[in-house]
Amino acid sequence: MQRPPEVVFDFLADATNLPLWDGTGATVEVLTSGPPRRGTQICQRGRAFRVVGVEQISELTEFERPRRLASRGVAGPVLPIAGSYILSALGTGTRVRFEAEHETTGVRRRILAPIVRRVSRRQLAAAYRRLASVLEGDTHAHACGHEH
Length: 148
Fold this sequence. Notes:
Strand content: 35-45%
Low-confidence stretches: 139-148
Structural class: alpha+beta
Oligomer: single chain
Shape: globular
Distance between the termini: 15 Å
Radius of gyration: 15 Å
Largest sheet: 6 strands, antiparallel
Order of helices and strands: HHEEEEEEHH
Number of strands: 6
């Protein structure tokens, strides 16, 4: 995307921006006072697979501006996932990569992880397009909730 890593990092680190680009329709409440930092907790309320209402609490586990931002679920019914945004300069813009690790084992992992991975790939691709639109100022795409 055509924004510097510092701008992208700050936008991603502010959890209140999540509903602007993630496309899940979740609401976000920051549970920790002060600016975003390692240890900041947020509560997301929404629908898993657009069907089941869920409430998930996540915590920032890494905060290395402007290169890496990571979080992991600490409470909630969703398959526990640790995720990292890795940002790198790409010309005058930023390359954003997301890595996720499912923190369950056994039957739950064998059954749910492949489903979550498949759905997540599609959702992430659309979310990245929305993120770029929001950060690059395409307010029409943001206001309409879709990309052009």
